[in-house]
Design a protein that fits this description.
Helix content is 19%, strand content 37%. By secondary structure, the chain is of the alpha+beta class. The protein folds into two domains: 2-41; 55-204, Distorted Sandwich (Glucose Permease (Domain IIA)), CATH 2.70.70. Helix 1 runs antiparallel to helix 2.
């Protein structure tokens, strides 16, 4: 709102003062471009959810840069699968819930700001983790700051019920989102794939065993 008001004021001043006020015209142009970039960066598009109820959705938009088995001690307490998505400054930086469930784990850890596509970013960079318990198992979303990111926002609190595709947070500027899932869930993506938050299916949950 403030950036928009300043931009409008500079543009109005440049128009009223005319050609004799080149500085105002330049300032208006620069601020208009800046405001346009800010609006573009903080865009928050919604997409229709896939019909498949077993689909594990991408929590972030970007490129899948790594898929591997890892040890995750804070929420899984052992081995699980990790899918890493790298977000450039041109990607949507709003994160969405990959599954419906209850938030039973929420932590924040300060750290460094290494380039987000590097493996060490998952260990060393500033990060926030959100653990979700579902009827089919646990899922963990980890928001990781990148080289120019300086703030991570995580919306839900422990105990909250969240729905698949709902907004769960935001990382400002280039960053990374790691998704952790049980080893017996079927991964349906590959390194190099593009993902869209709340739309792209990265894996499928196993069917519930009736009892």
């Amino acid at each position: 709102m403030v950036a928009g008001a300043v931009t409008a004021l500079a543009a109005w001043a440049g128009f009223v003062l005319g050609s004799g006020s080149t500085g105002w015209l330049v300032a208006g142009l620069v601020l208009t471009l800046l405001f346009g970039f800010v609006a573009f960066f903080f865009r928050d598009p919604r997409h229709p959810l896939p019909a498949d109820p077993a689909a594990l959705l991408a929590p972030g938009q970007g490129r899948v840069v790594d898929i591997r088995e890892v040890d995750e001690p804070t929420f899984f307490g052992g081995a699980c699968r990790r899918i890493s998505i790298f977000l450039t400054i041109f990607d949507v930086h709003v994160q969405r819930a990959p599954v419906s469930g209850v938030v039973e784990h929420r932590t924040y850890r300060p750290g460094t700001y290494a380039v987000a596509w590097l493996e060490k970013a998952s260990e060393d960079n500033e990060q926030a983790s959100l653990g979700i318990t579902t009827s089919r198992g646990k899922v963990l979303v980890r928001q990781i700051a990148g080289l120019v990111a300086r703030r991570i926002v995580t919306d839900p609190s422990e105990g909250d019920r969240i729905e698949r595709g709902s907004r769960i947070g935001l990382i400002r500027f280039g960053s990374r989102v790691d998704l952790f899932l049980p080893l017996d869930w079927e991964v349906t993506c590959a390194v190099g794939d593009r993902a869209v938050a709340g739309l792209t299916t990265l894996a499928r949950q196993p069917a519930l065993v009736s009892g």
